[in-house]
Amino acid sequence: MPIRTRSVDISQKKTSSTSKKRKPCYYLSIFDIIWNVLNNPSLYNTMYFGPGFEVEEKKEYWHGDLWAESPLFGQDKIIIDRECYYPGEFIIYKEDNEQRFGRIRSIISFNNELQIKIQRIYVYNELPTKFYSKVHSATQEIQLWLIDQYLEEGSIIVKTNKIVKKINISIIRNSSIITGLHIKEILYKSNGHWKLRNVDLDYMHPSEYSTLSAPLSQYNNLEVLKLFIDIYYDDFGTYRNAYHSLGGVYIQIGNMPFDVRKSLRNHFVLGFVPFGGNFDDFINPFVSDMKQLERGVLINVQGCDHRVIASLGCTIADLPQGNNLNLDIAKISRYHHITNTYFENIIAAQTITQQNDIAKKYGLQNYFPILDKLQRERHLQSSQDIYHLMAGKTSKLLKLTVAILSPDGEQKFLKVWKSFDILTNVELTKLQERTGLQRNQVTNAIIRCWSIVAKCNQIVFKFPLSNSDYKDLEKSLKEERQVLTMLFSDFVGLPNLHACYHLPRHARTFGTLTNTEVGTKEMVHRIFKNMVPHTNRKNINFDLLKCYTTLQSIRHLADGRFDPRYSRPSIDFIIMFQNSKYLFKDWFITKDLLDMDNEESEICSQSNNIQNIKLRKPIPSYKQMIKTDTALFYSDMALAYQDFGYNASLVNQSYNFYECASYIQNNGYSEVKCHLHKNNVVQIRTNNYGEGYVMIKAIFKHKSSNGRYYPFIYIDWFENTSRKHTKVNCPIFILRQDTSRCKIFPLTIMDGVQKTHFVHDCNTGVKIIITIWNTINI
């Protein structure tokens, strides 16, 4: 891809006195990035273009509300009885043999057919009786009420034959002119109670701020490809001082499945903001190109012309929307149309001092953000990153917890971080006064606080999410807020805690919260930061971009494409690619965390999804506690072989045991290197026993009758006691003592499982009681 350049202003406040006032910045065009992605078969064949999906388990951007509702990403119209219906329009539809008012939220794919998701509308007689009043009664013939779409009664999915006709209904925002049917208020629930709020206090439907331009006549018969663009910006100090802060701008294409997007090579670099440069100056060419792409451009994709539309879907915001901990989130959120008015007031101020005062009052900058030139909802489409959000909050809790411990308690906490029971008398008294709890109840309250925070972290990072998970997320965040602010006054004004209010809405908007997290983006960012010492240190942003485009060229060839200067692919490169497959596919070399000594190779996998199995750190036979000469062991081994279709007799009775194993797991779109250790606790799924938690007691290999070595794991099963821990309120599991379940399985049973973190309760005597603490991907 060609590297482009333009001159930008350099701030004298951010650079040394000898710096020039203008410097060149280097960047890649979004047009070039899109062309390369769409013309790469290995990427294009994984991408999704089409309507939003209504599914039980939500994983992708197209499972979220933004994709489904916006004409720039999802289905923008549907024809019913020769009438064209668009998202955002008001209709009359049939429900339970009655005609009702409703608003089309989206046109979605549900049960393999296009259906209509409708937001319900109430008439006066359907309102809760508490809202019956003379004011509402006087306007009952023309006033209607929208129902919050996220309530159980707020929306419904209907087939197209239930649509009767369109109807004109006006949403009254900041206007005193009322004619015909109109909506001024939204019915919703806060803390379980019905409430009404002004219709201004809601995010606009995407159709109200995003418009799909009509195609030129020559484009009418072309296939349309709509792209979801995710942009991320972060800076880093290259030389650990304020003068050398280099900003990286990265792009992702949301049409790729999650497993494809998380690969490092599928994070595309737009460029680097030079030392002392301004993000707005740098991003101007991108904004200009995106405005053209919003209208649609002609691009040749895989040899055929297509009309390509690309729009900004998501940006990452590091700062939360204010600091108010009022519990009515609908009334404290920021909305694009309202902050537009604030910006207009700021700009209309006659002096800079007045502008600054108004901007400070509303917590805004003095001018419209440059990305507002594009079609987007500045608040809804700027999500908070869950990694920074949850880490900052948990770090704060850790510091406050350690601060209330005595020196002896702090040492025990750091050694076994469950020892909360040694508090200083001063802090104990303060917590008693703040919470009103008895002295012996304070310790339990702190432990319960940590339990709630851990559960909250688990569901925030959960993938995928279901509709019930959205409700659990909202409930868990509410519990976390209450317990943190009850125990520690420092949390009352913590921005991270306020920002968590918005997570349930962001989860629904983008399908999951992990879709907008920046974990892998930070890795890409870190890679470029680590490359700085290896440049000439004179024109760093240019050198980094040259390194990146070189990688793109290698990727271009590694993905089976060819240099346009030649008529066919290079045979020499194809051979070289096969020898360096993982390097070219992953773009980085990692130093193995495991000891490379005593590595056992040539292990045969029992599954196509798990390859390159390595067994490491052999265990001497005299240290191995598993009895291999029992009838039960032989029986379990035979069943384990049968699991992958091997029914020959087991002649060899020699087994080699190891401390750990590593393997490459292919999940369809990408390959992940996984590590497994003895005594790990994992969740597995078997045909006979379903899902269950197990502890890996041994990792070993066995030579079969065909002369091949196969890997196995020896496990102990956990049993759910159906009880919960009195302090942390988590399920309690014990190790099963019976031998009714098979204990030996092929190592490949680990395909697609999750590693689970447990907490050991040391106060229960002989029995090993283990409590689920958190679940993370391997």
From TrEMBL:
Domain of life: Eukaryota
Protein name from the UniProt record: HCP-like protein
